[in-house]
Amino acid sequence: MCSGCGFPAAPGHWTEAGAATAPDRLRARFRRAEVLKPVLRAYGLTAHDGGLVPGIQISTLSGHQAIVRDLEDLWAAAERMAGRPVDPLDPCFIGGGDGGR
Length: 101
What we know:
This protein is α+β, with helices and mostly antiparallel strands. Helices cover 32% and strands 13% of the residues.
């Protein structure tokens, strides 16, 4: 159990498949957070994974924060915090648009 957030230690995430060692899993977490940043930025949100707590920290530009366990929780929290639907498969994020809103 994490003393910082109260979440139990996660067994791993599917995006970490192939990460054989703890440093590899940590790099996968950091990479996942980097991929989330431009998507969430378009909705006025930020994502951070410092590797210390099991989860991803999501914040509004005004400072409201939440720690989520996984990507499923992240999208739900992002929609609540943004006050509108969040579509990570929008063409502007996957190479079919202008890359921004």
